[in-house]
Every structure is written in structure tokens, then in C-alpha cells.
Amino acid sequence: MNFFEHQDRARRTTLWLILLFVLGVIAIAVVVNALVLFFLGEPPPAGAPPARWVEDNLELLITSTVLVVAGIGLASAFRVASLSGGGSKVAEMLGGTRVTPDTRDPKRRQLLNVVEEVALASGTPVPDVYVLEEEKAINAFAAGYSQSDAAVAVTRGTLEKLNREELQGVVAHEFAHIVNGDMRLNIRLMGVVFGLLVLTVVGRFMTRAIFVGGGSREGKQAAMGIAALGLALILVGALGVFFGRLIKAAVSRQREFLADASAVQYTRNPDSIGGALKKIALHSRGSGLESPETEEVSHMLFASGFASMSGLLATHPPLEQRIRAVDPQFDPERDLAALAQQEKRRKEARAEAEAAARQSREEAQTGGRSGIPGVTPLPGMEALPQGAILAAILADVDQPDTRRHQGAARLIERLPDPLTDAVHSDQAGLAVLYLLISDDRKVRDQQLQQVAEDWGDEAAETLQGWLAADWTLAPDQRLPVLELALPALRHQPREDLAALQATVEALIAKDGQVSVFEFALAQLFNGHLRDVLNPSGADRGHARVNADKVEGIRQLLSVLAAAGAEGDKESARAAYAAGMAVLYRENQPPSYGIPENWPKALGTMLPRLDRLSPGNKRKLVEAMVATVAHNGQVNIREAELLRALAAALHVPIPLILPTTAEGAAHEGGAE
């Protein structure tokens, strides 16, 4: 199942969720009405048929139904609204603490490194990272409405018990949920579950009436009746819990198998995700959580949040099944015994290692950041064979492999240390502005003056210092710098983000022209800000292809074609024709042409194209790839432009790394 099919499946699953929710509400309303009729209804005359009972109490039953439906609906809406801040709200609800870039905890530092590498490799924005410090079991989750407001949280037990390889498997599993669009559905599920549980809360409140009833006989009888009704609502609430768990189980189980498979394909190492699952099976705490909110989030966890949950209502497949899916040779008795011995030896060596680790950390802090052993710098982008480019890149959209992870790690290591520190701090905005500073001295002076006016002389002086250091950022590093800066930017005041957005537009306009990459970078930045400022915004992916969309596609492919042609109009027309051939196999495509004010025109069209259905988006991305690859080569500049424009359409394209003809052909043939 590829990325675009996942999007379609998520939309169909949402409809299925709505249907199950409606059926659950109807069932609860019927039971509540029966109880209301029994406890509060006027009894029918002797010998009257049951229908008469309903008819005589119709107004009461209608009122009861309206209250039940409204109560469940409002409770669900309240829970979803309370989580409108995105993934961070979910993590904080469970007691998570955000991992800041300046953390000195080596386990937290390792977690941040792994998350950043996986994010860059998969072509998604770097999410916020949280640790559930009070949870000693092994578990994790990803939450949010979109890739731009996502948060990844792991338990302290995950950090303490898993090695880096296993942690990478868990993080890759969670990124599969992020990329596949599972998170928005998960938050909707939280609202559904909370709504179905609200009757239990109301019932508990009503049972207290017995303690506050009046002293008269009538008052006590009324209190007893209300308390009895409250007890009944608690029982009905149990029905809501059942429906909630049934809905979560129906939606969640198969997605966990898919996410496990994605993690294996991504890491090319079954022992990464398999090792984490085996350690859950080994440890007494397993994956069970202590938080009282576990019921609400159980469907989005890496492994079951309840130690005893199994069967029809289980949100996750049995551990042994998940392990066998990635390791068919798994023998529980043999493998878990061997793992227990390894854990024992690890614990025995920990005391000695801690002293050495402290000394190493002190040396590392004074000696600068160490490199990654065995990793060489990323060489220049080689030409890719035309026949394999489309299949290779689209295969990476479906599932990036471990080379992307390694390439992301190397790319981060190549960044200047001060710039890496800046993207992780309150200087993240300056790091974004640094990407837009012109090489032309006159334009640069105007841009620095603009920064001084908007952000003060100190900010302009900081940028001047970075420019004086003469860092050379390769084209493949510019987009990752923006992506690395996003977590820090998310936590800045809204007014600062709006001011930064205005400064970005002003710097781009200083030279009187807009390069294609400047445009793509600005669109990507603005798109992320929109998602961050309005995480629970309207769904994308409902629009049909009409004349308006066709014009947008024509403009997009024309700009892409011209960008790679470097002034050669014949080459641009050939590139455009190659892209349009993907979309128009029989009919005559619209003619090549760039609007006079293409940044404004395309800027208006991109949000509309972002609303295409997943199937049509896939065709558009295929056409974009065919356009840039028409001459049999994709250099770094074209690759990063492709990634930026695709990201503006919310299609994550992983890092496009140096690939030999044989390697790309092999990847393309794998499909």
C-alpha cells in the first residue's frame, strides 16, 4: 500500500468511524430511553399495548433522545476542541515533557537525533518530541492533525530499555503513522471515545443525589430515583466503553501491522522493530501505561496500553503475531531467554559504563560535536537514469529506505555547528532568514537593513557574523535547515511568527525578482505556519480536477520545466511535454506557458492543488518527477525544488541521494 492509497484508506476509515459512532449513539439512546421510560415514564393503563406506553411518553422520550445525542456530540466536540493545539496537547495531557535541544540527558539527546534523522529522511517536518517521564513501560505514540503540528512521545522506559537501533525502529513505526495520515483519525477517535464515556461521568454525578436529597419522604424518594437512574447511566456508559473500544479495535489493529512493515522496510532491519517488541514481551511492565488517560489514547500507542486487553476489543495484534510478522523464525522460549541473558549482562556492565560515559560527555562538551563513525561526507549528486527515476522516487514516497536515514545523518553533520545550534534555539527564525540572504552585495545590504528594522540591530549583526564566517550551504542543505528549525518556531508567539513571515516576503522581494527556489521555500514555510497556527483546519483532498485545477497544473509544470532548463526554451518545452505525457496519454494537453507574474499566480493555485484527491495528487507528483527528469538527470537543485513543491502539496518526498544507474534501476525494478 503506497502513500496515496493510505490517504484514500484513511478517508474511507473516517466514514466507517462515523457510521460506527452513529450506531453506537443510537444503541445508547435506545437503552437510555428504555431506562427513562421505566423509571420516569407514566405507566400505561391496564391492558394497554406497549405502544401506548411509548405514545403516552413520547415527549419525554424525544427530550431524552435529544439530551443523549446532544450530550455525546458536545462531549466529543469538547474533547476535539481541547486538543486543537495539535500533537503537543495530547502529549502534555499524558504528562509528557518536551525535549529541548539543549538537553544534557544523553538518552534524550539520542532520541532527538533519531527523530531528526528520520524526519529529514522521510521528507516530513521535524515534530516536537516528548518523554513521558513517569511511565516505566516501553511505549510511544505520534499525535497531531497534520505533519506540521505532529508530536512524537516515548516513555522513559523506552529510552532506558531500548538501544539506538531499537529506538530507531519504534520512531520509524510512529513516522509511518505520521506519513500515512493516521494521526487526524486518531484525534477524532479520542473525541468519539470521550463522547461515549460521558454517560458514565454523568451517571456518577447523579448517584450522589442520594447523599443530598431533602429530609422529606418525597425528597428522599426523588433522590433515590435520580441515584438509581445515575447507576443505570453508569451501566449504559459501560456500553459506551464497549462501543468505544470496539471502534478503536476495528480501526487500529490492521494499521499496526502496516506501520510495523513500514518500519522494517525503512530500516531494512527486522531486528530494530522486532527487538523493541521482544523487549516488551520480556519485561514485566511490558507496554502498559499508568496514566488515567490511557483509555482515550490506547489506539494510537506503539503497543497495547493495557496489559490484559486482548481479543475482540484489543487495539493491537498480539505481540507474538507482530514479532513473527517481522521475524518468522521467532521462538518465544529460546529467543526471550537469550534476550534475558543479554539484559542481565547489560545491567552488570552499566555501573562501570556510567562513570566512563560521564567522562566522555564532559570531553565531548569541551571538544565539540563528534562525527558518526564510519560515515563519509555526502558526495555530489550523480545523474540518475531516466527510466528508473520515476519508480525510484515514487517508491521512496511510499517508503524511504535506510540509506535516506544515513544520508540525513550525514547531512546534519555537514551543517556548520553555529547554524545547527541556531535552528534548535530562539534563533531559529534568523536561521530561516539566513537562507534567503543574497550573494549580491547591494541586495544583501538592503536585506540586512530590513532585518535590522524588523528584528533589531542585534539580529542583523548576528546574520552579518554568520555571513562573515563564509559558510557554504549546498543546495541539498537549505530545505533541511528550514525543516530542522520548525520545532523551535512552533513554540514562538504567534505575533513573532507573523512578523517572521512578513520579513521572509520582504527579503525575497529586495532584488525585484523571485527565484523558483525562493518561491518554493516561502511556500513551504508559509504552509507549515498555516498548519501550525490552525492544526485542526479543514481536511484537504476533496476537490475534483476542473478547469481551474488544470490551469494550476499547467503553471506548476511550466515553472518546473523552466527551472531545470536554465534558459533553454526547447529543453523547457521538452520537459513540460514529458510531464504532461503522464497526465494526458490520449487527449491534447494544455500548451506550455509561464504567467507573467508566475509567483502570484502559482501561489494562488498551490493551495487549490493541495485539495486534490490522493489519487490525483499521485498523478501530479508523477508528472512533476517526469518533468524534472526528462533529460535523464536530477541534480541536487532540482531534487530539492521537487521536494519543496511536493511538501507544499503535503506529499513528503524523502531525501534524493546519490544513486548509481544500477542502483536506481534496481530500486525501480523492485516494484
**How is the largest sheet built, in terms of strand order?**
1-2-4-3
Strand content: under 5%
Distance between the termini: 12 Å
Uncertain regions spanning at least 5 consecutive residues = 363-389, 658-671
Rounded to the nearest angstrom, the radius of gyration is 28 Å
Helix/strand/pairing category: mainly alpha
Q: Identify the overall geometry.
A: globular
Number of strands: 4
Estimated helix fraction: 55-70%
Largest sheet: 4 strands, mixed
Mean pLDDT: 80
Oligomer: single chain
The total count of helices amounts to 29
Protein name: Peptidase M48-like protein
Biased composition (Basic and acidic residues): 341-364
Transmembrane segments: 15-40, 60-81, 189-211, 223-247
GO biological process, one term: proteolysis
Structure description:
This protein has 671 residues and is mainly α. Among the domains are: 3-87 and 185-252, no CATH class; 415-513, no CATH class; 541-649, no CATH class. The chain is built from 29 helices and 4 strands. It has helices at residues 3-40, 50-56, 58-82, 87-93, 106-122, 156-161, 164-179, 182-207, 209-212, 217-267, 270-282, 294-297, 319-326, 332-367, 386-398, 402-414, 417-423, 428-434, 441-455, 457-468, 475-490, 494-509, 516-533, 547-565, 569-583, 598-609, 614-628, 636-648, 661-670, and strands at 97-98, 128-132, 140-143, 151-155. The protein starts with a helix and ends with a helix. Residues 363-389 and 658-671 have low confidence and may be disordered.
